[in-house]
Amino acid sequence: MAREWEAVIGLEVHCQLKTGTKVWCGCSTDYDNAKPNTHVCPICLGHPGVLPKLNEKVLDYAIKAGLALNCDINKESKFDRKNYFYPDTPKNYQITQFDKPYAENGYLDIKLNSGREKRIGITRIHIEEDAGKSIHTTNESFVNFNRASMPLIEIVSEPDIRTPEEAYEYLNTLKTAIKYTGISDVSMELGSLRCDANVSVREKGTEKFGTRTETKNLNSFKAVAKAIEYEIGRQIELIENGGVVEQETLLWDEANGVTRVMRSKEEANDYRYFPEPDLVKVIIDNDRLERLKAEMPESKIDKVKRFIKEYDLKEKDAEILSNEIELADYFEQVAKYSNNSKSSSNWIITEVLRVLKEENKEITDFSIRAEHLAKIIKLIDNGTISSKIAKKVFEMKLTDSRDPEEIVKVEGLTQVSDSSEIEKIVDEVIANNPKMVEDYKQADEGRKPRVLKGLMGQVMKITKGKANPKLVTELFEKKL
Amino acid sequence: MKKLYKLTAKELSKLLKEKKIKAVDIVNSIFERINEVEDKIGSFVYLDKENALEQAKKVDEKIEKGIELKPLEGIPVAIKDNMVSNGEPTTASSKILSNYKGIYDATVVKLIKDEGMILIGKTNMDEFAMGSTTKTSFIKESKNPWDLERVPGGSSGGSATAVAAQEVILTLGSDTGGSIRQPAAFCGVVGLKPTYGRVSRYGLIAFGSSLDQIGPFGKTVEDVAMFMNVIAKHDEMDTTSLNIETPDYTKNLNEDIKGLKIGIPKEYFIDGMDNEVKKAIENAIEEYKKMGAEIVEISLLHTEYAPSTYYIIAPAEASSNLARFDGIRYGYRTENYKDIKDLYIKTRSEGFGDEVKRRIMIGTYVLSAGYYDAYYKQAQKVRRLIKNDFDKAFKNVDVILTPATPNTAFKLTDKKSPVEMYLEDVFTISANLAGIPGIVIPTGKNKNGLPIGMQLLGKHFDETTLLKVANNFEKRAYRIELPDNI
């Protein structure tokens, strides 16, 4: 019988904090479009004699991440030095947290496509500094230190992940949870989120871990899943063919869909960790913790629950609306102004999200203000326009900043509710469509509405959709 | 009137305020003295007379306008070559920084400038503050003003000789294991290592970060106290700098010390200690008794482990602190290299001297994965025990009196092994491990006319008592006359 294998996966996620200033100095972190080496100072360049000083905002943001990921926040932690030579590491050591991180023992609940839920443990989160960037041309190398000493947190998961799908969902859930706190853009494209995957395989039912490899250079969630899948396959095949998995650091080669060896265990650095003597202990007192807890936004899980309860939404809709905190806020505003949460949810999920996808935009860049979308919904609800006209107004609003009421008024889109006017048209339709009228009269109760719809269509055609459908229906029913 | 360079800061300040002299006169006087003796002594690695005169003129203008001067305004000062000053060479007396100019001011430099003191230059030192002779300097050899064939001590040798040879009024040194106190003893000047965290280390090129402390040299205890008033300030740039108020260190200097308890640790009177040094310390104890102090024998049990503990922790930190000198961003870079690894190896092989390399290797070794627990971790535990010894002792005594060094200044040509050299700091090292303040003052001379130093150790942040006890000795028992003919 073929042996059955199980993968053991742990992820290390680096997340860049958008604190505005670097972790040990006052240099700006907004260097994206800046010239190389313009956001630097003696401290982040590691000049002789300088000392680091912890940016308090970094600590606040890091604590928020810890709270968002259900971690215990350690009252006392410390910084350590990790020593290694690299041209874009100004001090030739990195200040990080080794054996006493500020946050530990957290978890994240993920939901898989099958609907099954799973809890993934978070071993620890620690604060560290980023390195600069090396740029190589054919015969010269340059270093840009703008990124040096950017504040990072490293989130290390427990080896609880078993499949590429779980890894993918873990990253998605993690991204949402972090993004909710507002401490990071968590974007792999922008480089504010980076992920390394530790993968090993073992025979199902065994306890002992197999030898793991660490894969770096993963630049999208999909790449993470693909690389893990490849690595699981490679390791199983290797073992089944009598080989042994080596402890190695691998690079993911996206173009060829394979992992390649970056360095083997023998080449591994001895980082010579020791306590950073230039920084005092990190003390997080209760007042600070309580303040930050109070500042924490509602989590996605709580928001979904609340949306279901408060707005009477379906779970799936509540989930969609809560995927991004800004979208959730938008929904709540529309619901508040329109006083119709169901309709608000429908409009956002079907229309707004469609437009955002088509235009590849974020909700924060969406052209229709929440009050205006709410007005469109209100105009339907109070019978001023039909839902068909509403769609038209919505499309116009994408490029038209006028108030929906004004658009409806100026463009003459108001629903015709004058019964004498509609009665005339109804009579005209009845007179011109004897076959349909006969058909209606013969139809049983079940088929009647369908035939009526055809008649209604004629009325709408004449009125260009402006006739009040309710009134039209009533008139038809009365006359026929 | 005596030549101005011979006076103390206190005396000069008084004369300036009374408009009897000008700051420019002081600067001219000390540069005359420098011209006269510097070739023989070798205190300085960098001097800027022009700038000094410019600063002095500004002070004189202030005096003329009737603006009140700060206590040390107009007083010439020199700093050890490991303190960064903007736009000026700062080399730590190493080849690897031989072309480096500071791009900012160290906090102490800022404080000196804010006070209106006149920075005249930088003093020679052991390379990266590693050594007990100032002979490891890449730039030059400094000589003991009392005997030009002898070492001035180290690593702040240049700062000690500059004061002892009366080339400048005040200097700053740094002390990682005794680098202020040992040369102060050898050169017959007053040197204070403040409590760790009392003076900002921002801008001090790090050697052993958890041990390094900047401190003053002066001709008298009072001058040193005045200088402490300038440099002992909390600094936000240094998180290990404590946020407590600075007392006026000159206030209690002349109070008597009746009833004050002085501890004498038996472990500090070791075999192999120079007899004359021993006698001088015994004399000092007698003098203190006469002044009404109570002498208490105490025990600092773990003293013998201090040097080995120190020579694990200091190199460990140094190996990491010195990693940044790699030829990539600043400083010396090797001429020919084939790849990045080759660039690192050649730059550092050519740029660092033997002593620095030795300590980087020791440090790298004791921090490496297989040896961390056996060495570094163990050393940290012993460090804690040494600290506890002092905490216990200071429950019963106000200060601790010890010899500063086992011997007086030795000859430049004396061949000592690195380990013998490391034992030069045996009496001073413990204070750095425990973070407590220590002052060394002259307590006499030996038959060769070489100064002997006595060390007083104090409680954390209690420099006030140290200075008072030292000042009493200087005023009532002994004050050394600095050598004039060099």
Automatic annotation (TrEMBL), chain A:
UniProt-recorded Gene Ontology molecular function terms: ATP binding; glutaminyl-tRNA synthase (glutamine-hydrolyzing) activity
InterPro entries, sorted: Asn/Gln-tRNA_amidoTrfase_suB/E, Asn/Gln-tRNA_Trfase_suB/E_cat, Asn/Gln_amidotransferase, Asn/Gln_tRNA_amidoTrase-B-like, GatB, GatB_C_1, GatB_Yqey_C_2, Gln-tRNA_amidoTrfase_suB_CS
Residue ranges constituting the Asn/Gln amidotransferase domain according to the UniProt record: 329-480
GO biological process: glutaminyl-tRNAGln biosynthesis via transamidation; translation
Major enzyme class: ligase
Catalysis performed (reactions): L-glutamyl-tRNA(Gln) + L-glutamine + ATP + H2O = L-glutaminyl-tRNA(Gln) + L-glutamate + ADP + phosphate + H(+); L-aspartyl-tRNA(Asn) + L-glutamine + ATP + H2O = L-asparaginyl-tRNA(Asn) + L-glutamate + ADP + phosphate + 2 H(+)
Classification via PROSITE patterns: GATB
Matching Pfam families: GatB_N (PF02934), GatB_Yqey (PF02637)
EC number: 6.3.5.-
Keyword set, alphabetical order: ATP-binding, Ligase, Nucleotide-binding, Protein biosynthesis
Entry-linked SUPFAM superfamilies: GatB/YqeY motif, Glutamine synthetase/guanido kinase
KW ATP-binding (keyword) present: yes
Domain of life: Bacteria
PANTHER family with a match to the protein in the record: GLUTAMYL-TRNA GLN AMIDOTRANSFERASE SUBUNIT B MITOCHONDRIAL AND PROKARYOTIC PET112-RELATED (PTHR11659), GLUTAMYL-TRNA(GLN) AMIDOTRANSFERASE SUBUNIT B, MITOCHONDRIAL (PTHR11659:SF0)
Subunit note: Heterotrimer of A, B and C subunits.
Family assignment from sequence similarity: Belongs to the GatB/GatE family. GatB subfamily.
Functional note: Allows the formation of correctly charged Asn-tRNA(Asn) or Gln-tRNA(Gln) through the transamidation of misacylated Asp-tRNA(Asn) or Glu-tRNA(Gln) in organisms which lack either or both of asparaginyl-tRNA or glutaminyl-tRNA synthetases. The reaction takes place in the presence of glutamine and ATP through an activated phospho-Asp-tRNA(Asn) or phospho-Glu-tRNA(Gln).
Protein name per UniProt: Aspartyl/glutamyl-tRNA(Asn/Gln) amidotransferase subunit B
From TrEMBL, chain B:
Catalytic activity: L-glutamyl-tRNA(Gln) + L-glutamine + ATP + H2O = L-glutaminyl-tRNA(Gln) + L-glutamate + ADP + phosphate + H(+)
Enzyme Commission numbers on file: 6.3.5.7
GO BP: translation
Active-site residues per Swiss-Prot or TrEMBL entry: 80, 155, 179
One GO location term (cellular component): glutamyl-tRNA(Gln) amidotransferase complex
Keywords: ATP-binding, Ligase, Nucleotide-binding, Protein biosynthesis
Enzymatic class: ligase
Xref: InterPro entries: Amidase, Amidase_CS, Amidase_dom, AS_sf, GatA
A GO MF label: ATP binding
Quaternary organization: Heterotrimer of A, B and C subunits.
Reported function: Allows the formation of correctly charged Gln-tRNA(Gln) through the transamidation of misacylated Glu-tRNA(Gln) in organisms which lack glutaminyl-tRNA synthetase. The reaction takes place in the presence of glutamine and ATP through an activated gamma-phospho-Glu-tRNA(Gln).
Family as reported in the entry's similarity comment: Belongs to the amidase family. GatA subfamily.
Full protein name: Glutamyl-tRNA(Gln) amidotransferase subunit A
Provenance organism: Hypnocyclicus thermotrophus
Gene: gatA
